[in-house]
Write a structure and sequence with these properties.
Layout (H helix, E strand, L loop, with lengths): L1 E6 L18 E2 L2 E2 H10 L6 E6 L4 H9 L7 E6 L4 H15 L7 E6 L7 H14 L1 E7 L23 E10 H13 L10 H7 L5 E4 L10 H14 L2
Parallel strand pairs: 1-4, 1-6, 4-5, 7-9
Antiparallel strand pairs: 2-3, 6-8, 7-8
Length: 238
């Protein structure tokens, strides 16, 4: 079984909208999250989709999805956690409780606000996770990255060839992911404060296979990003 976990539990404060979380804002003629979900509806490798939504927007999310064409894909909504790591754990817990976790089960986790993910990226994530256990989507950075261990000064300039920007999907063999959370609990790692699941994987000595992403697989964070995304969508329709 291949599950897609769509991470939509954030509020999106940088969008500066008090009335509506950014994943529900319109992109083209549909809500942003629906544009994202459609990339998983059309993928024949995806068996079931679990959307994690803000608790206060759970019913709203269910209603929005029910009004869209899910293309006969099995979609359900659960309430999310305080951060991405907690939301992914809630997905794993839900799957374990309701379906059980099989040896070959895969979970593809993806930001609800990355609507331009390609079928190639999704499929390569699934293939890599099956072979290596964990896969992460990345792109080479165009800019030189600088680091600072002090507030006002550059303290390091890593080699540009070694710097990548993280995207999603991040994809896991479910049994491996479940064991990561079990180990984290044994080591008293506080998931509420661990915002990056990949960092937790590396801490436990896990290797993450890189899948090359695409610059078009952008994350919509602020009003400017939404303007760019609408322009990209309009261009795709030409």
């Amino acid at each position: 079984m291949v599950y897609a976990g769509i991470l939509a539990a954030g509020i999106g404060s940088r969008m500066h909208r008090q009335d509506l979380p950014k994943q529900f804002l319109p992109l083209g003629e549909k809500p942003l999250i629906i544009n994202t979900l459609e990339q998983f509806y059309v993928n024949p490798n995806i068996d079931k989709i679990i959307v994690v939504a803000p608790h206060d927007w759970h019913q709203f999310t269910e209603d929005m999805i029910s009004k869209s064409d899910t293309m006969d894909t099995d979609v359900l909504v659960i309430s999310g956690g305080l951060n991405k790591t907690m939301s992914v754990k809630l997905i794993v817990d839900y799957i374990e409780k309701n379906y059980g976790i099989g040896d070959d089960d895969i979970l593809v986790t993806h930001d609800a606000v990355r609507p331009f993910v390609t079928q190639r990226i999704i499929n390569e994530n699934i293939t890599a996770a099956r072979e290596y256990g964990i896969a992460g989507t990345v792109v080479l950075t165009n800019d030189t990255i600088v680091a600072s261990t002090q507030k006002d000064y550059i303290t390091a300039v890593p080699k540009k060839s070694e710097m990548f920007a993280e995207q999603t999907p991040q994809t896991y063999r479910l049994k491996d992911l479940d064991s990561i959370f079990v180990q984290a609990e044994k080591e008293n790692d506080v998931l509420e404060s661990e915002t990056e699941l990949a960092r937790l994987c590396i801490k436990q000595g896990r290797k993450i296979k890189m899948v090359r992403g695409d610059v078009s697989n952008m994350k919509i964070i602020n009003p400017y990003d939404l303007e760019v995304a609408n322009a990209l969508l309009a261009e795709k329709k030409l």
